[in-house]
Amino acid sequence: MRAAHVIFGTYGFWLPNDPRGSWSKFVAAWDLFRAAGRATTVHTRHSRAATSHDHEARRAAKSELKYPPVTLTGLQARAIGEAFHDFAERSRLTVLACAILPQHIHLVIADYRYDAGQVVTLLKGAASKRLVGQSLHPMLMFPRREGRPPTCWARGEWKVYLDTPACVTRAVCYVENNPAKEGLKPQHWRVITPFHDWIQNRR
Asked: Is residue 73 exposed (0-12), middle (13-18) or buried (19+ Cβ within 10 Å)?
Protein backbone atom coordinates (compact mmCIF):
# COMPACT_ATOMS: atom_id res chain seq x y z
CA MET A 1 0.00 0.00 0.00
CA ARG A 2 1.36 3.40 -1.01
CA ALA A 3 -0.43 6.25 0.76
CA ALA A 4 0.43 9.29 2.85
CA HIS A 5 -1.13 12.10 4.86
CA VAL A 6 0.54 15.37 3.88
CA ILE A 7 0.10 18.87 5.27
CA PHE A 8 1.57 22.06 3.87
CA GLY A 9 1.05 25.67 4.85
CA THR A 10 0.71 29.02 3.21
CA TYR A 11 3.50 31.57 3.54
CA GLY A 12 3.88 32.65 7.17
CA PHE A 13 1.60 29.97 8.61
CA TRP A 14 4.19 28.01 10.60
CA LEU A 15 7.63 29.56 10.99
CA PRO A 16 10.82 27.47 11.23
CA ASN A 17 11.42 28.86 14.74
CA ASP A 18 7.81 28.61 15.92
CA PRO A 19 7.87 28.18 19.74
CA ARG A 20 5.66 25.08 19.41
CA GLY A 21 8.41 23.37 17.38
CA SER A 22 8.82 22.89 13.65
CA TRP A 23 10.08 20.38 11.12
CA SER A 24 12.61 22.88 9.73
CA LYS A 25 16.34 22.60 10.37
CA PHE A 26 17.32 26.22 9.78
CA VAL A 27 16.01 29.78 9.55
CA ALA A 28 16.88 31.31 6.19
CA ALA A 29 15.79 34.92 6.85
CA TRP A 30 18.13 36.98 9.06
CA ASP A 31 15.37 39.26 10.43
CA LEU A 32 13.33 36.23 11.43
CA PHE A 33 16.36 34.60 13.05
CA ARG A 34 17.12 37.81 14.96
CA ALA A 35 13.53 38.09 16.19
CA ALA A 36 12.92 34.49 17.27
CA GLY A 37 16.20 32.58 17.17
CA ARG A 38 17.18 29.23 15.73
CA ALA A 39 14.90 26.65 14.17
CA THR A 40 12.91 24.80 16.83
CA THR A 41 13.33 21.41 15.21
CA VAL A 42 11.27 18.49 16.54
CA HIS A 43 11.14 14.92 15.29
CA THR A 44 7.64 13.89 16.37
CA ARG A 45 4.92 13.07 13.83
CA HIS A 46 1.87 14.13 15.82
CA SER A 47 0.34 17.60 15.51
CA ARG A 48 1.98 20.39 17.54
CA ALA A 49 -0.81 22.92 16.92
CA ALA A 50 -2.26 22.75 20.45
CA THR A 51 1.12 22.87 22.22
CA SER A 52 1.29 25.54 24.95
CA HIS A 53 3.54 28.43 23.88
CA ASP A 54 4.21 32.17 24.02
CA HIS A 55 1.63 33.65 21.64
CA GLU A 56 3.19 37.12 21.78
CA ALA A 57 6.59 35.75 20.77
CA ARG A 58 5.01 33.96 17.81
CA ARG A 59 3.21 37.14 16.68
CA ALA A 60 6.40 39.18 17.08
CA ALA A 61 8.30 36.73 14.88
CA LYS A 62 5.63 36.90 12.18
CA SER A 63 5.96 40.69 12.11
CA GLU A 64 9.51 40.20 10.80
CA LEU A 65 8.40 38.33 7.68
CA LYS A 66 9.30 39.92 4.35
CA TYR A 67 5.68 39.70 3.19
CA PRO A 68 2.36 39.52 5.07
CA PRO A 69 1.27 35.97 6.02
CA VAL A 70 -1.03 34.47 3.39
CA THR A 71 -4.65 33.67 4.23
CA LEU A 72 -6.58 32.08 1.38
CA THR A 73 -10.01 33.33 0.35
CA GLY A 74 -12.84 31.09 -0.79
CA LEU A 75 -12.17 31.94 -4.45
CA GLN A 76 -8.50 31.11 -4.05
CA ALA A 77 -9.34 27.82 -2.34
CA ARG A 78 -11.67 26.92 -5.22
CA ALA A 79 -8.94 27.63 -7.78
CA ILE A 80 -6.49 25.49 -5.80
CA GLY A 81 -9.01 22.63 -5.66
CA GLU A 82 -9.44 22.81 -9.44
CA ALA A 83 -5.67 22.79 -9.92
CA PHE A 84 -5.33 19.73 -7.69
CA HIS A 85 -8.02 17.94 -9.70
CA ASP A 86 -6.35 18.66 -13.04
CA PHE A 87 -2.93 17.65 -11.72
CA ALA A 88 -4.30 14.39 -10.28
CA GLU A 89 -5.96 13.58 -13.62
CA ARG A 90 -2.74 14.16 -15.56
CA SER A 91 -0.46 12.30 -13.16
CA ARG A 92 -2.90 9.54 -12.12
CA LEU A 93 -2.56 10.60 -8.51
CA THR A 94 -5.30 9.39 -6.16
CA VAL A 95 -6.54 11.87 -3.56
CA LEU A 96 -8.62 10.22 -0.85
CA ALA A 97 -9.22 13.33 1.26
CA CYS A 98 -8.63 17.05 0.85
CA ALA A 99 -9.15 20.03 3.16
CA ILE A 100 -8.13 23.46 1.85
CA LEU A 101 -8.10 25.73 4.89
CA PRO A 102 -7.23 29.45 5.04
CA GLN A 103 -3.60 28.85 6.07
CA HIS A 104 -2.85 25.19 5.45
CA ILE A 105 -3.89 22.21 3.37
CA HIS A 106 -4.43 18.55 4.30
CA LEU A 107 -4.36 15.76 1.72
CA VAL A 108 -4.43 11.99 1.88
CA ILE A 109 -2.76 10.80 -1.31
CA ALA A 110 -2.22 7.35 -2.78
CA ASP A 111 -0.83 5.62 -5.87
CA TYR A 112 1.75 8.37 -6.39
CA ARG A 113 4.73 7.78 -8.66
CA TYR A 114 7.09 10.14 -6.85
CA ASP A 115 8.10 10.65 -3.24
CA ALA A 116 5.27 12.24 -1.25
CA GLY A 117 7.37 15.37 -0.71
CA GLN A 118 7.87 15.74 -4.45
CA VAL A 119 4.13 15.32 -5.00
CA VAL A 120 3.54 18.25 -2.63
CA THR A 121 6.05 20.37 -4.55
CA LEU A 122 4.26 19.59 -7.82
CA LEU A 123 0.84 20.32 -6.29
CA LYS A 124 2.09 23.68 -4.99
CA GLY A 125 3.37 24.50 -8.47
CA ALA A 126 0.09 23.53 -10.13
CA ALA A 127 -1.91 25.59 -7.63
CA SER A 128 0.37 28.62 -8.00
CA LYS A 129 0.10 28.50 -11.79
CA ARG A 130 -3.71 28.36 -11.58
CA LEU A 131 -3.83 31.25 -9.11
CA VAL A 132 -1.63 33.40 -11.34
CA GLY A 133 -3.66 32.45 -14.42
CA GLN A 134 -6.89 33.54 -12.74
CA SER A 135 -5.31 36.70 -11.25
CA LEU A 136 -6.02 35.31 -7.78
CA HIS A 137 -2.47 34.81 -6.52
CA PRO A 138 -2.24 36.36 -3.00
CA MET A 139 1.24 37.77 -3.71
CA LEU A 140 0.43 39.53 -7.01
CA MET A 141 1.01 42.93 -5.38
CA PHE A 142 4.65 42.01 -4.70
CA PRO A 143 6.03 41.25 -8.20
CA ARG A 144 9.65 40.21 -8.55
CA ARG A 145 12.03 41.41 -11.24
CA GLU A 146 11.12 38.56 -13.59
CA GLY A 147 7.43 39.40 -13.17
CA ARG A 148 6.46 36.34 -11.12
CA PRO A 149 5.01 36.84 -7.63
CA PRO A 150 6.80 35.40 -4.58
CA THR A 151 5.62 31.97 -3.49
CA CYS A 152 2.44 31.88 -1.45
CA TRP A 153 3.53 28.61 0.19
CA ALA A 154 5.66 27.82 3.21
CA ARG A 155 8.75 25.70 2.59
CA GLY A 156 8.45 21.94 2.86
CA GLU A 157 5.64 19.82 4.22
CA TRP A 158 4.69 17.45 7.03
CA LYS A 159 4.04 13.87 5.96
CA VAL A 160 3.23 10.51 7.48
CA TYR A 161 3.20 7.34 5.41
CA LEU A 162 0.15 5.08 5.81
CA ASP A 163 0.76 1.36 5.43
CA THR A 164 -2.58 -0.25 6.33
CA PRO A 165 -6.23 0.38 5.37
CA ALA A 166 -6.95 1.26 9.01
CA CYS A 167 -4.25 3.97 8.98
CA VAL A 168 -5.67 5.39 5.75
CA THR A 169 -9.21 5.38 7.16
CA ARG A 170 -8.11 7.30 10.27
CA ALA A 171 -6.25 9.87 8.17
CA VAL A 172 -9.21 10.35 5.82
CA CYS A 173 -11.58 10.91 8.76
CA TYR A 174 -9.13 13.36 10.34
CA VAL A 175 -8.86 15.41 7.14
CA GLU A 176 -12.61 15.36 6.49
CA ASN A 177 -13.28 16.68 10.01
CA ASN A 178 -10.60 19.38 9.87
CA PRO A 179 -12.71 22.22 8.38
CA ALA A 180 -15.18 21.97 11.27
CA LYS A 181 -12.32 22.55 13.73
CA GLU A 182 -11.85 25.97 12.13
CA GLY A 183 -15.55 26.76 12.05
CA LEU A 184 -15.90 25.98 8.35
CA LYS A 185 -18.49 23.93 6.49
CA PRO A 186 -17.68 20.41 5.22
CA GLN A 187 -15.73 20.47 1.98
CA HIS A 188 -16.43 18.43 -1.15
CA TRP A 189 -13.69 18.59 -3.77
CA ARG A 190 -13.91 17.09 -7.24
CA VAL A 191 -10.39 15.68 -6.88
CA ILE A 192 -11.42 13.17 -4.21
CA THR A 193 -11.74 9.45 -4.90
CA PRO A 194 -13.96 7.87 -2.21
CA PHE A 195 -11.97 5.53 0.02
CA HIS A 196 -14.43 2.66 -0.52
CA ASP A 197 -14.07 2.90 -4.31
CA TRP A 198 -10.28 2.99 -4.05
CA ILE A 199 -10.17 -0.13 -1.84
CA GLN A 200 -12.58 -1.99 -4.14
CA ASN A 201 -10.46 -1.20 -7.19
CA ARG A 202 -7.36 -2.58 -5.47
CA ARG A 203 -8.89 -6.03 -5.02
From this structure: exposed
